[in-house]
Amino acid sequence: MKLFMMIPVILFCCVFPLALAADGLQVGFYSTSCGKAESIVEKVVQKRFSQDNSITAALLRMHFHDCFVRGCDASLLIDPTNETVSEKKDGANASVRGFDLIDEIKEAVEAACPSTVSCADIIALATRDAVALSGGPKYSVPTGRRDGLVSNIADVELPGPTISIPEVSKFFAAKGIEKEEMVALLGAHSVGVSHCGFFADRLGGKPDPTMDPALAAKLIILCKSNPDAAVFLDQNTSSLMDNEYYKQLLLKRGIMDIDQQLSLDISTSPFVSAFASDSEKFMQRFGMSMVKMGEVGVLVGKEGEIRKNCRVFNNGTA
After folding, report:
1. pLDDT tens across 181-238, in order?
2. Which long-range contacts (CB under 8 A, 24 or more apart) does 299-303 make?
3. Which of 143, 232, 240, 259 would give a disulfide with 254, using CB separation of 3.0 to 4.6 Å?
4. Minimum mean pLDDT among 12-26, 203-217, 228-242, 263-277: which range?
5. Torsion of CA 87, 89, 92, 97, to 10 degrees
6. Is 195 noted as a catalytic residue in this protein?
7. How many CA atoms lie within 13 A of 187 on its CB side?
8. Is 183:210 a contact under the CB 8 Å cutoff?
9. Average pLDDT of 4-11?
10. Which domain of life is it from (predicted)?
């Protein structure tokens, strides 16, 4: 999904109540088999965040891109081989990063509890911890996912930044995610960036009437001098997971067209307004929606496997 991409401040400390998990997933799944699992993940993420707080955006993007292909099964982590071209090689995944952090977490977890904690669960837990470190909600993540046995570039069909609201709504709906949840999830752009190429169409020719003229003028100058420049999707509090992103949309300061259209389309604009005016509501909906997204297409029980190395299947193939 070409929709995603940094001060360690925590603004909210509430743990929000969440809906029941999908069959086979449960909060505290590793409490007896690997009681230290979640604390190990948190410790490694905290260390990385203290060095690079943009890791939150990276993990959010990774989590989204993994769940929206075959489901949340860590298929995105598989490296390509001479025989198989994995999801990781698709153009939409070219800017996904943080794989080394997942490797570091996996190594630490394997040392404590060999062949117990899945790479899919590590992605979900690491993302949750990074979100909290960026000021977002602390939400409970049901675990028990298994890792997938397939990773094929041909399976990757992710929406781009110029997709319409009806089209992106249909895409999310196919995954069981409703419009309010979709709008909440796109709040991940609160800590994201985009490169000029993804919104250049809004800057050329006639001025885009849906973009604040002052912002447009600023971006034209920036992108003309550096066509690959990165721009914060939230122009105000770009380091924090908060509801400022929605406030910016109401001021026509959305960077990508898909973002700005959220505040203009009649089916999504009420949610943008609600989140812009109620920070706690956004935090709650975002946490709940992340949990729901993390249950898309999960493998549980005896399905899939628990990889020893997140980059390769246990049989050594891709």
Report:
1. 999 999 999 998 999 999 999 998 787 999 999 999 999 999 999 999 999 999 999 9
2. 299/71, 299/73, 299/120, 299/145, 299/146, 299/147, 299/148, 300/22, 300/23, 300/24, 300/25, 300/144, 300/145, 300/146, 301/24, 301/146, 303/146
3. 259
4. 12-26
5. 90
6. no
7. 37
8. no
9. 32
10. Eukaryota
- R_g over Cα of the chain: 19
Q: What is the CATH number that goes with domain 165-288?
A: 1.10.420.10
Name the region of 205 (left: φ>0; alpha: ψ -120 to 50; beta: rest): left
**Quick check: 147 and 120 in contact, CB under 8 A?**
yes
State the pLDDT at residue 317. 61
- The residue among 225, 186, 253, 218 whose CA lies nearest residue 5 is 186
Query: Model confidence over 108-118: pLDDT tens digits?
Result: 999 999 999 99
Q: Which two tokens stand for residue 101?
A: 């952090």
pTM for this prediction: 0.91
